[in-house]
TrEMBL record:
Domain Endoribonuclease L-PSP/chorismate mutase-like: 5-143
CDD domains per record: YjgF_YER057c_UK114_like_1 (cd02199)
Domain of life: Archaea
InterPro entries hit by this protein: Endoribo_LPSP/chorism_mut-like (IPR013813), RutC-like_sf (IPR035959)
Species, as recorded: Nitrosarchaeum koreense MY1
Transmembrane spans: none
Pfam families in the cross-refs: YjgF_endoribonc
Protein name, as recorded: Endoribonuclease L-PSP
Length: 150
């Protein structure tokens, strides 16, 4: 059902991106999965780079959405079946923004809304959304996740 929902909204879950540093993409402990921060990588390249400001919020939202899709890719690789997810517990969203930008939640909402659209109540989660002075590879956004599995 989840896979069908994903396809119905026009998303193809990609092969998960390779870590850009000395870490692993996911750790399982008990019934929790901790997904490392995902940047907006598509086809091996950062799709959205640079600083977020009031003038490019929609672009930053696209960036956050790709981060969420990459989280799903990591989960799919680990679990094989996204139906095994019982709850998204938390997202931590980072926005590479100019100092005066204050709409970080609006940017990260794109990821949160996508998870709710796909998973319904299972996709509801706690969250932080913060602005930072830079992100790896100059990406606009980075998001990590904590997910509970059945």
């Amino acid at each position: 059902m989840i896979e069908e929902k994903i396809k119905s909204i026009g998303i193809n879950i990609p092969v998960p991106p390779t870590p850009a540093g000395s870490y692993i993409p996911l750790v399982k402990t008990g019934n929790l999965l901790y997904v490392s921060g995902q940047i907006p990588l598509q086809d091996g390249k950062v799709a959205f780079t640079g600083k977020v400001s009031d003038e490019n919020i929609e672009t930053a939202q696209k960036s956050a959405r790709i981060c969420a899709i990459n989280i799903l890719a990591q989960l799919k690789k680990e679990l094989g079946d996204l139906e095994k997810i019982s709850r998204f517990v938390r997202l931590s969203g980072f926005v590479n923004s100019v100092p005066e930008f204050t709409q970080h939640p609006k940017v990260i909402n794109a990821a949160s809304d996508l998870l709710y659209e796909i998973f319904g109540d299972v996709g509801k989660h706690t969250r932080i959304a913060v602005g930072v002075s830079s992100l790896p590879l100059n990406s606009m956004t980075e998001i990590d996740a904590i997910v509970e599995i059945k």
